[in-house]
Each structure stands twice: as C-alpha cells, then as structure tokens.
C-alpha cells in the first residue's frame, strides 16, 4: 500500500528546497540512477510535471541534488576554528569519512558519473574538490604545514584521490581497519607526502 503525502501549499522557493532536501535524503541510500522521480514526487505530494517545472527535467533535478549534496559535504567537513593544523585536518577528515559512510550509495554514484563523462556532474565534482583543496592553503596562509606551491597543490589533489578511494574501500569493508586507523592514515599521509619534497 502506497502512502501519499498530503499536498501542502508552499512558495516556489520552499517547494524547490523541499524537493532538493528529499532528493538528497534519497541519494544517501541509493545511487543517482536509482533516484526515482515518481517516488520523489509522491513523497513531496506533487505531480511529476511540477517537479520538472522547477528543474527543467530529470537531468536538471539530478544536477541540483548533486550540487546540494556537494554543498553539504563542503559544509560538514569544515575544519574547527580551534586547534593546530594537524588536529583540524583530523577533524575535517573524520567529518569526511562520516559523510561518505552515511551517503555511500549516492557518493559512489557521483564518483562514477563524474568519471563516466557526465560533464555537468564532473564540473560539480571538480569544483567541490578544488574548493576542499583550497581550504588547505586558505587555512594555513603562513604555509606552516603546507606552503602554497605548485608541487604541493599537485600533492594535495593526488592525496584527495587517495583519501576518496581509501574511504570508499573502507566503507565497503570496514573490517580491513578500524575507523581510527583509517583516520590516522588519512590525516598523517598528507604531511608525510609534503615532507618528502
């Protein structure tokens, strides 16, 4: 038996926000390909046509949901204001691991879609990871931990790719190491890479 949410009159902006929130919630437990427009419209108590009205179609909705999820990732991984650089990096990486673990299906599908040639999703992915990388240099303007050099920027990007792969692998099989061990590897490997230069 299907339960339909009663229709509630919302402003266009409130309705758009509601749809994005529902899309992000659904994306946490299913891949982008499994995100059902019909199920989402039913949960919101609107017609499929109204959802298309707000986003211009299925692809526009998917892109908006992925952008919202990317914005959430960026916000949730903001390092704390207090602590030394390594403590702040560890806190940020803990938030990243927790975000990926809680949203594994959707996060994995975004990584696949970005790698698979979807230009719009690739742009969201690249912009988000560039912004995350930029944090390292903005948070450390004196360059105490991470001097802003082309070589260090390249290392940060490579480290991000490693951190993403390691986190996704750990989420698929958390028995390979503890969460604390994973975080020590993630937070300790960037300074170690920088030190080698």
Terminal CA distance reads 62 Å
**Class per helix and strand makeup:** mainly alpha
Could you name the ranges where pLDDT drops below 50 across 5 or more consecutive residues? Answer: none
What is the helix/strand order? HHHHHHHHH
The count of helical stretches stands at: 9
Q: What count of structural domains?
A: 2
Form type:
elongated
Task: Report the strand count.
Answer: 0
Q: Which strand-content bin applies to the residues?
A: under 5%
Average pLDDT level: 88
Radius of gyration, CA atoms, in whole angstroms: 19 Å
Largest sheet: none
Overall helicity: over 70%
Explain how this protein is built.
The chain is mainly alpha-helical and 197 residues long. It folds into 2 domains: 51 residues, Arc Repressor Mutant, subunit A (Orthogonal Bundle); 120 residues, no CATH class. 72% of the residues lie in helices and 0% in strands. The protein contains 9 helices and no strands.
Name the features.
197 residues; mainly alpha; Arc Repressor Mutant, subunit A; elongated; DesT_TetR_C
